Amino acid sequence: MRRHVSPTLAHKAITALLVEPNVTVELPMLEDARAFEMEVEALGAIATRIEAPEEVDVKAIREILGLSQEAFARRFGLDLATVRNWEQKRSRPDTAARVLLRTIEKEPDAVTRALTAA
C-alpha cells in the first residue's frame, strides 16, 4: 500500500498530520485507498478522498451559462474544436479537464477571475 513513497516523504506527511489540524496529503500511487483510510481513521484522524468526476456534461454546463461554444471556449481558455469534440462525444475530457469543467460548473466566475488575474 505504501509502495513508491520515500521514507522522507512519509515522515514529512506523518509529521504534518500530527502537528496541523487539517492537512492535505497527496498519495498518487496508493494501491488500496479504502484500506489506507481505515488505517488513518483508526489513528483518530479523518480521511477524505477527493477524486475527479468520471463524467462531465460539457454541453449542459455551457448551456446553463448561456454561452455559445465559441464564447465558452474563449472565456475558459479552451480550444473550440476540443469543446465541440467533447460535446459530440468524439473525445472525452482527460482528468485535469474534467476537474476544470466541474469547477466551471460550480464556480464559473472564480475560474474567470483566476484566468484573467495577471
Structure explained in plain terms:
The protein is an all-alpha fold and 118 residues long. 56% of the residues lie in helices and 0% in strands. The protein has helices at residues 7-19, 33-42, 58-64, 69-75, 80-87, 95-106, 108-116. Helix 6 crosses helix 7. The mean pLDDT is 84.
**Oligomeric state of shown chains:** single chain
Strand content: under 5%
CATH C-level label of the largest domain: Mainly Alpha
How many helical stretches? 7
What is the 3D form?
Answer: elongated
Taking Cα atoms only, what radius of gyration do you get, to the nearest Å?
19 Å
Query: What's the story with the biggest beta sheet?
Result: none
Question: What do we call the CATH homologous superfamily of the largest domain?
Answer: lambda repressor-like DNA-binding domains
Are there runs of 5+ residues with pLDDT below 50, and where?
none
Percent helix: 55-70%
Backbone structural class:
mainly alpha
The tally of beta strands, per DSSP, is 0
User: Termini, distance in Å?
Assistant: 41 Å
> From the 3D coordinates, which CATH architecture of the largest domain would you assign?
Orthogonal Bundle
CATH topology type of the largest domain? 434 Repressor (Amino-terminal Domain)
H/E element order: HHHHHHH
Return the domain count: 2
Properties at a glance:
118 residues, mainly alpha, 434 Repressor (Amino-terminal Domain), 2 domains
